[in-house]
Amino acid sequence: MSRSGANLALLMLGGFRSLVDAATIELANRGYDDVRPLHDFALRAVAAGADSASELGRRMSVTKQAAARTVATLEERGYVVRTPDPADARRMRIEVSDRGFAVLQEGEGIFDDLRTQWQQRIGPEKLAELESLLTELVGPQPVRFDTPGWLARDLGEST
Amino acid sequence: MSRSGANLALLMLGGFRSLVDAATIELANRGYDDVRPLHDFALRAVAAGADSASELGRRMSVTKQAAARTVATLEERGYVVRTPDPADARRMRIEVSDRGFAVLQEGEGIFDDLRTQWQQRIGPEKLAELESLLTELVGPQPVRFDTPGWLARDLGEST
DNA sequence: CCGATTAGACAACATTGTTGTCCATCACAA
DNA sequence: TTGTGATGGACAACAATGTTGTCTAATCGG
């Protein structure tokens, strides 16, 4: 019947976007209107140990140039700090700033809230089932997102 | 536990990407190496009645300029045909070409095949359950994808 | 017939990505 | 110790999409 494969894909896209868009808007409401999910994810990678642009690029599966630009943006906006690595003059060590940690925490909370909302809509067991199935299908660590463009786009927050 | 809201979002992104990437690659294998999911979706919209650039823009929630460029690309590659509208000299009527229909059909088939693969991995009931839950959460018609950028990106098909 | 709306096109620019190139620095081995 | 190769970072040029703004031509409404 209507359960075409394309529809299944669109369903997942819709789910993802609905969460991410809501999170981005809420983040903007809380004063972080210059972060996109891309930045959030990059920040997470930095916090998780990607302390150089090249390393960040590897973890996010983008070129080091792209990663470097993301880092530059994050630095401009005060979410990370770059300091020369005393042990290796080639490297610039990247660290998440206080503001960076703050936005990460907010992000966590927002996503968790959204998940809770979903839980209330379909029930804890069903949500767990959903997560379990998705995990089985796409693997437990779907962190590998070489996602360009749209994650970073603006949402219609104003107007 | 580890089931954070962010993870849930990533899971869905992973699922979507895994389907779409596979489909894009397979489409390229079958000779349509110049179509991205973006084009496929735009083509669908045209086939569904969006017969002008402006209308396509409205349906895909992008500006008419962006839509016009997509149409131009599709025309260049032979997936749509533009003809002057006899009833309105301002408009160019857009129609899906034979090749366009062909790629749409291939796309359908590929997505269905992928869905079948998933079905084999987790079983028909569970897949149905997954679809049912997603539909409940995001609505039956998640077609509204104002998705920029990355859908249109190149995948690493060669090398 | 005239003003408002609409379709399409063009230009300028923002975002994010890619390749290619270059230089400085480090690691390692001869 | 020194030479060679790998690595980090930066710059430039370009591709793909998107946005706004502006303009012209055609249609529509009164």
UniProtKB/TrEMBL annotation, chains A, B:
**Residues of the HTH marR-type domain:** 1-139
Which InterPro entries does UniProt cross-reference here? HTH_MarR-typ, MarR/SlyA-like, WH-like_DNA-bd_sf, WH_DNA-bd_sf
Name the UniProt key words of this record, in alphabetical order.
DNA-binding
Key word DNA-binding present: yes
Pfam families, per database record: MarR_2
PROSITE patterns found in the cross-reference section: HTH_MARR_2
SMART domains in UniProt: HTH_MARR
Q: Which GO terms describe its molecular function?
A: DNA binding
**What superkingdom heads the lineage?**
Bacteria
| Cited PANTHER family | HTH-TYPE TRANSCRIPTIONAL REPRESSOR YETL, TRANSCRIPTIONAL REGULATOR, MARR FAMILY
Q: What is this protein's name?
A: Winged helix DNA-binding protein
